[in-house]
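hiii, so i know i said id send this last week but things got crazy w the move. better late than never?? heres the sequnce for the chain we talked about at the cafe, plus the structure i predicted for it. fair warning i was half asleep when i ran it
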Amino acid sequence: FYEERSEYKDELKDVMVYIDSPMATSATEVFRRNAQVFDDETKDYILRGDHPLDFKNLKFTRTSEESQALNFDPSPKVIIASSGMCEAGRIKHHLKHNLWNPKSSIVFVGYQAPGTLGRSIANGDKNVTVLGEKIHIEAEIYNLEGFSGHADRDGLLEWLSGFRKKPARIFLVHGEEDSKKDFAAYVKKALGYNCTVVEGDSEYTLSKNAVVTVEDYNNEIVSPESLTRIKNKISAVHDDLETILYNTHLAVGGNLSPEQLTEINNTILALEKYTFSLGSAVAKEA
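okay and structure toks below
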């Protein structure tokens, strides 16, 4: 963001960002521990020292007391809270304390299902009930659909295109009815697959027409394509280590904190352990 809009850097440098969701906190830790599966763009950011899940103003709140205290702190801040459709969780308390305030902004970054509180707010309703209290909305409301974690039309089609064998059934469940119908027509035209558009509460009986044997599964695991992917991953790890070693030389003599040095040392020990494990696995006889 700052690379394209540097004029905001000084204005936002002291604004705290709070992740106010125990589940999101735990999920973030999972992502932090598995950075190897990030896309190339994100890996490049991390290797340059710009980790998207770890910056100086980021704070995680786990306890309900920490969450409640955010609403009594008047300083500007960004609060990221669940649930996304505002039906439960800590977001309801934040809405109760901020929807009436014209200085507040409520930003939706995902789909809001019909009948939910989030849908009512996003649609522009000016009066809602939150935790039994009627609230007149004065806050600014925004909907940034581009931040959704779901794949878009092309992403879904790419995923469907990856099946070696035509799927027996395809059900379109999540999304607006018109969007699901349009996507079903798009899939039919692009891939020739018929999709079932699920409307409301529906029931379907599934039948199993084929059985995959263990032998078939094992043959796919040791295919030439799988071995090539493994070699490419090892080569990519080697290149990333070269970049890290270069950055380490630049950082020598810098202002590294004791915490940073401890984290680096622990990571190196883990890397050493897994390096020996990889070597052992490669050398092991079949």
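btw The longest strand covers residues 16-20. thought thatd interest u
miss u guys!!
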